[in-house]
Design brief:
This protein is mostly helical. It has twelve helices and no strands. It folds into two domains: 30 residues; 214 residues, MetI-like (MetI-like fold, Orthogonal Bundle).
Length: 250
């Protein structure tokens, strides 16, 4: 019952916001050229769909997000395990990881394009450059927070490193890994769109940049709305994984 009330309030808030936006734009209280209006955005999206462009752009962006997200999680997870098992490697690389993570990724964008070409590969690398270090550090710190007494207990039982990881370290870092997934999916979306701004010839980021270049701000707002919708779907996807893991852990 509580969840239904929350959902109802969210829907009402959304309806009020859209209605107010339409009203203010229709009465020219806000600049309709810059902010467009819900009705114009709907028409723009319908036209894009009819022309066959909308689904192409959405598919391109989702494909890049999926590849970047999957690679980011796999690489971060494997690297975190290596760092946990051989901590000297992490201590050696730590300052370099920090320096690279703090470097504005837009600054290395041109270098990425030169190295990997003006295509999806560069966009994926750009997304990975934004998410990877953060996820490695997050998961590694989750591993470090494993209960030391339980570790000593398993050591006394002469448990192998694999068993310690499988039955203690990784399960103990469960919440950290879920948090990392949530951060990774949002940062991956940012990285992909940033990459599409620079090099893409398709995708929602390209759609937004193209709309800016031709001063079609309704197209820009349409792209932003689609991005918000994609972001919400990705959030539901991660929540579904979290709920499934929660059921599996009980």
């Amino acid at each position: 019952m509580k969840n239904k009330k929350i959902l109802l309030c969210q829907l009402l808030l959304l309806i009020v916001f859209i209605s107010l936006w339409e009203f203010l734009s229709d009465k020219n209280i806000i600049n309709s050229f810059i902010f467009s209006s819900p009705s114009r955005i709907i028409k723009c999206l319908i036209n894009l769909y009819k022309n066959g462009n909308l689904l192409t752009h959405i598919h391109t962006t989702l494909n890049e997000i999926f590849i970047s997200f999957s690679l980011g999680i796999i690489i971060a997870f494997v690297a975190s395990i290596i760092f946990y098992e051989i901590k000297i490697i992490y201590h050696i690389l730590d300052p370099f990881l920090t320096i690279f993570n703090s470097t504005p990724k837009v600054a290395i964008g041109p270098l990425i394009i030169i190295l990997f070409g003006a295509g999806s590969k560069s966009i994926i690398i750009m997304a990975l450059s934004i998410t990877l270090i953060l996820n490695i550090i997050s998961i590694y710190n989750g591993f470090l927070n494993t209960d030391k007494y339980l570790e000593k207990l398993l050591d006394s039982l002469k448990a192998s490193g694999y068993k310690k990881l499988k039955y203690l370290v990784i399960p103990s870092a469960y919440k950290t890994i879920i948090t990392s997934l949530k951060i990774n999916i949002s940062m991956t979306l940012i990285g992909v769109i940033m990459g599409e701004f620079l090099v893409s010839k398709a995708g929602i980021g390209y759609l937004i940049i193209y709309g800016t270049q031709v001063f079609n701000l309704t197209l820009v707002m349409s792209g932003i709305i689609v991005l918000m919708f994609i972001s919400y779907i990705l959030y539901l996807f991660i929540s579904l994984i979290e709920n499934k893991l929660n059921r599996g852990s009980h």
